[in-house]
Amino acid sequence: MLRRLLRDPVTLFGLAVILATVLAALLAPQLAPYSPDEQFFDGLSLEGAPLPPSERFWLGTDLLGRDLLSRLIWGSRTSLLIGVVANGFAVLLGTLLGVAAGYARGWLGAVIMRFTDLMMAFPALLLAIALAAIFRPSLWIVALVIAMVNWVQIARIVYTETSSLVEREFIEASRAIGAGPLRILLSHVLPHLVPTMLVWGTLGIATTVLLEATLSFLGVGVRPPTPSWGNIIFENQTWLTTAPWLVVFPGAAILLLALAFNLVGDALRDALDPTQRGRD
Amino acid sequence: MATYLARRLGQALFILLGITLVTYLLLFLLPADPVRQIAGRSATPEVVESIRRQLGLDLPLWQQYLRYLGRLLTGDLGRSYAQKTEVTTLILSRLPATLQLMAGAIAVELLIGLPLGVLAAAKRGRPVDRALMVASLTAVSAPQFVVGILLLYVFAVQLGWFPIGGYGSFSHLVLPALTLGLLGGGWYARMTRSAMLDVLRQDYITTARAKGAGSARILLVHAFRNAALPIIAMIGLDIGIFMSGAVVVESVFGWPGIGQLVWQAIQLVDIPVIVGVTAVAACFIVLGNLMADIAAPFVDPRIKRR
């Protein structure tokens, strides 16, 4: 299966982008040419405008004369951290509630599923904005807010899978030989859910990266001076028509990372879903 | 059919009630102290107490919730802290612009998604198909604010083909609608492709082919109608994406809809406005889902029998 994934150039491209971002985030202090917070006094033009890309500042400078490349490299930490933490939490919560609803069914299952119906009715971004406006945003609050919005879809998918799993004969058989509910869940139900969690965990990171960037762009996400790809664009809004590099580079970074996770998630889904194999 | 509709309607009402509970929670329970936000920091204890009584915050929670519900039934979403106006008035004055933007976005996503999906299905497995599928994922992965800013920069600032933001004529609508519709266009291309592939696998297509129908005719007449109608019937489900997207697109283009209202409210930490728009958007989403549920059995009579 892994070989199938690695043979596809498009998936390989996605994996390479993810790997590069992870490396940039881990090695930020070594890779970044300058400190992300240093305001160079030769970093602005005589009129006080940001500088375009040059030999000294590879991707140009921002409104305060800081090196854009260094801010982007440090910003990858924010994007990845929130992507992994927020989405990990969403997958955990979604799986927990989905399994509980699918296994218990009855009134508990009904209550949980009606609650997910309700949450589905809220537009994700607006709910996140409302929550972020109420709790003064910090990196962890943003991660929490995104997790609180994103678990819903995973819960529904896991619920559907669990409720069809528990009707299968092998579950009935293990119940018949006296296995308790915990044992059934841990050794029979959860292993079957791993592919689903893997696929939706990967695709969810793309959604999370985009949501964090959007919240930060709107000013209710990660607050400057902590660099995030979204808040770099937010901070530099006034210069957007004269200094397009301040949108193009962070924008490209967000797009590439989200696309990479979408490509890999898509490939994983095709590879892990046996009914899809051999089709298309 | 009637029971199907009645059940869907009942579910919708139930969800609407749930929405009021969540918005009540957001409005009155979570903020540190709404009274302080209205009265300001320097208010005397007497003023604070009178505002508290005015808002009914001295009553038990369930009574407060019922009063809130009662106000909602008369269309009262509360007052904006910053603009000293009714939230309902603000939203109503902004709604037409947002609806116009959404109509534009629906046109864009169908015009992009359906033809490209058909093309990809026709060229299935070939480079065109692969390229289109990567392109559609790219559209789905593109942050809308970046797309909006870049379109604005290239086509309005540099080329001067369209006005730099604002509202009014058709040319004002083009760039915002394109930005909002692009994401959906990516999804529609993927959905149309897989729906077309499902249809093309069916026996009646083989029959048509055996009768000598040309491949263009099979694709466009026999397959497309069956593949595309269920997809078009699901447009109601897009309202959620649009409501989120409207905040971003309207703030980038200065489009005077409810999304821009939220964006302005963010700057002023005007929570009643944010929550009010969230509630209205949620109602639209419920309505959109209901529309999709009602349309489905008309488009695909097999659903009726289930």
Fold blueprint:
The complex is a heterodimer of chains A (280) and B (306).
Chain A: H1 2-7, H2 9-26, H3 28-31, H4 68-104, H5 106-120, H6 124-134, H7 139-165, H8 169-176, H9 181-218, H10 229-235, H11 245-272
Helix pairs in contact in A: 2-4, 2-11, 4-5, 4-7, 4-9, 5-7, 6-7, 7-9, 9-10, 9-11, 10-11
Chain B: H1 2-29, H2 34-39, H3 45-55, H4 61-73, H5 87-122, H6 127-141, H7 144-158, H8 170-200, H9 203-210, H10 215-233, H11 239-253, H12 258-267, H13 271-299, H14 302-305
Helix pairs in contact in B: 1-13, 5-6, 5-8, 5-10, 5-11, 5-13, 6-8, 7-8, 7-11, 8-10, 8-11, 11-12, 12-13
Detailed description of the structure:
The complex is a heterodimer of chains A (280) and B (306). Chain A is 71% helix and 0% strand. Chain A has eleven helices and no strands. The model of chain B has no long low-confidence stretch (mean pLDDT 85). Chain B has two domains: 72 residues, no CATH class; 173 residues, MetI-like (MetI-like fold, Orthogonal Bundle). With 306 residues, chain B is an all-alpha fold. Chain B: Belongs to the binding-protein-dependent transport system permease family. Chain B: InterPro entries: BPD_transp_1_N (IPR045621), MetI-like (IPR000515), MetI-like_sf (IPR035906). Chain B: This is ABC transporter permease. Chain B: Its main location: membrane.
The average pLDDT value of chain A, as a whole number, equals: 86
N-to-C order of helices and strands of chain A: HHHHHHHHHHH
Q: What oligomeric state do the depicted chains represent?
A: heterodimer
Classify the secondary structure makeup of chain B into a structural class: mainly alpha
- Biggest interchain interface, per-side counts: A-B, 45 and 51 residues
What Rg of chain B, in angstroms, do the CA atoms define?
Answer: 24 Å
Strand content of chain B: under 5%
Q: Count of DSSP E strands of chain B?
A: 0
CATH class category of the largest domain in chain B = Mainly Alpha
| Share in helix of chain B | over 70%
CATH superfamily of the largest domain in chain B: MetI-like
Low-confidence stretches of chain B: none
Major β-sheet profile of chain A = none
- Total beta-strand segments of chain A: 0
Give the helix tally of chain B.
Answer: 14
What spatial form of chain A do the alpha-carbon principal axes imply? elongated
Quick one: biggest sheet of chain B?
none
Radius of gyration of chain A, in Å, reads: 22 Å
